[in-house]
Amino acid sequence: MARLFLTRTFGILFGLVLVLQTLDLLSESGRILGTAGNGDAEVWRYVSLRAPQIISTFLPFSVLLGTVLTLITMNANSEVVALKASGLSAHQVLAPLVIASVGIALVTFAFNDRIVSRATAELSAWQKVNYGAMPLDRGDRANVWVRADNNLISADRISGRGEAARLGGITVYERNPDGGLRGLITAPNGLRQGDGWKVWPAKRFDVASGALTSLGTVVVARGVTPDQFTLANVDGDALSFTGLRAAISDLEEAGRPTKSLEGVLWHKLSGPLSSVLMPLLGAVAAFGIARSGALFVRAVIGMALGFAYFMADKFALAMGNLGAYPPFLAAWAPFLLFLLIGEAVLLRTEE
């Protein structure tokens, strides 16, 4: 049973990924090839970065469809009837599928943590430069804007954390109290120094006179702390479980809100476990007499329960991001709710 279940699950996943990746590539290939210097290598690079995201998203759907297809086949061949006639309960019949799903959940967590997060971070950085040359390493932040009093500071890239943070491609927009632009200070390098940031070799463009002056080394952005640069835009999906937990800790120390990221952190655990729910929600397709004519209806009910879970999961995460649900509730409530629903349906109909 487990072998049949795994074969069909990953067969369905392969078909879904092939179709969805093809459609996605058709919509993005024009932008990729439209950038000067890009060719087939960049197209395949995009596929290598996008495919892990598609696999992670649709693996639970594949587990659901693999469950329903496996159980329908066994029911149509009277194998489930034979198993129950031998004295096995409904839970014992489903046990091989649940055990296999636990293995899928563990593999999914490791895959998301080690591969999907890195691919998401790299693809996001690549898309920010419109699929052009990307001088950033994985884990660096890009295109961060910070306000210091009346001025605006932008950094093309930020690496490191805390006092060891390094800035690259710094531009300081000096503004008048009325909001007009007074001058621009640009520098390729920046380091933390005292309560400000040392940038070098700096140049200043005066808007009124049009003069460009070399400043050498100068301290700018006084009062701007490292967390305002390094934690300005934390993408939970682009960080591993431990990396996101460290970022949340840094945000808490800086007094910044973390509720939405805490929900993402908890969902990194509850998301992979959704595979364990699918055999339970799709179990309704396994039971009942095939010749009664209700087998198709049972299969539809099983798929409806599974898709209802995915909708509830997305809704709870959205409510958590808005602050309407606590982070733990946003991540775990759909899982626990549909676990009880699946058990109730199974006990009511078969046990």
UniProtKB/TrEMBL annotation:
Q: Where in the cell is it found?
A: Cell membrane
- InterPro entries in UniProt: LptG, LptG/LptF_permease
Q: Pfam families recorded for this chain?
A: LptF_LptG (PF03739)
Sorted alphabetically, the keyword list is: Cell membrane, Membrane, Transmembrane, Transmembrane helix
Q: Which domain of life is it from?
A: Bacteria
Is Transmembrane set as a keyword in this record? yes
Write out the transmembrane intervals: 53-72, 93-111, 295-312, 324-347
The way it spans or sits in the membrane comes to: Multi-pass membrane protein
Tell me the PANTHER family matching this sequence. LIPOPOLYSACCHARIDE EXPORT SYSTEM PERMEASE PROTEIN LPTG, SLR0882 PROTEIN-RELATED
Q: What is this protein called?
A: LPS export ABC transporter permease LptG
Q: Which gene encodes it?
A: lptG
